[in-house]
Amino acid sequence: MRRVHAELLTLPSWRVTAELLKLLTLPSLLLTAVLTLTTAAVVSWADAEPVPYAQAGFLVLGVLAATDSPVATLIAMPQRLPLHAARALTLGVLALPLAAAAGDALYLTCTTLLAFGVATLVRLPLPSVLTLLGSHFIACPLLRAASTDVAPFLPDAAAGAPSRGLLTTAAWTACALTLSAWSFTRRDAP
């Protein structure tokens, strides 16, 4: 246990820098970010709330960041826990200003990191995107309509009530990141 904490405390800046350069040079991430911000701007211009529409783009952003060629990254950085921490930290730093431009910095950043955690667990982009979009746009609204008692505990709770729901979304994100870190350190490379 002590070794795990020591690895996280000694997270060198070169790991974060390397991940940042990798994320900034992925064409799929850049295209997703541009399309998401464009959609948020158009929806906002049409006097609608942009966050529900931008949410899909941030889910895809997290999935693409998690499923981009981890084998090459593992060759360069074989220590898995610091690598996972650097990837999540870098994605959070990258998503925060994009999320602020889209309308809700903390909620959309948490949504991106939640998608990163789920995609790290699932390991494949298409099933991850389908799972996340299905849960956020089909399952959660159906559960919310069926019972108001479960609404505050759903992963997208902050979309409806940002002041109360952000803690719930952050808890879902922390659970997804913890499970994905545990899984990432204990399995073979894809």
A few lines on this structure:
Helix content is 81%, strand content 0%. It has 190 residues and is mostly helical. It has one domain.
If you had to describe this structure to a student in words, what would you say it looks like?
The structure is a single chain. By secondary structure, the protein is mainly α. The protein has one domain. Helix content is 81%, strand content 0%. The protein has ten helices and no strands. Helix 7 crosses helix 8. The longest helix is centred in the last third of the chain and has 25 residues. The two termini are 26 Å apart. The model has no long low-confidence stretch (mean pLDDT 86).
Supply the key terms.
190 residues
Characterize the biggest β-sheet: none
Structural class: mainly alpha
Helix share, percent: over 70%
Average residue pLDDT:
86
Integer-rounded radius of gyration: 17 Å
Question: What best-fitting shape do the alpha-carbon axes yield?
Answer: globular
Number of domains: 1
Helix count equals 10
Strand content: under 5%
**Poorly predicted regions:** none
Quick one: how many beta strands?
0
- N-C termini distance: 26 Å
- What series of H and E elements makes up the topology? HHHHHHHHHH
